[in-house]
Amino acid sequence: MLQAVLDRLDALDRKLDDLDRKVDGLDRKVIVSNRNAVARAQNTTVVRGNMELEPLYSMITGERLENFPQTLDQLERLQLPAVNDLLTHLGEAPRGRLEERRRQLKLVSGLVIRAV
Q1: What is the tally of structural domains in the chain?
Q2: Among 58, 75, 84, 116, which is disulfide-ready with 89 (CB 3.0 to 4.6 Å)?
């Protein structure tokens, strides 16, 4: 009987650890979403290719995307692997051909004026 109680306590402890990891992941996603909302708002003012972009944060790692293009011109020259990587880190499923994916990246980055 005592062993059954100990086994149940171990199972409960594992579930609590699991819940703790999930809460930490959710906390990271909320923080990243807030940071990205601010960056997107700043990027809405970008209208020329040489204007600097505010980098976004990865939904996967929570870190600033170091490979995020510095300017709109750089974004418009990104190749398929880089575009796919950025979209994936931003929580987006890449879709369509390269130009469509660049447009998708512009929209998710807050570049609504140059994306349309």
Answers
A1: 1
A2: 58
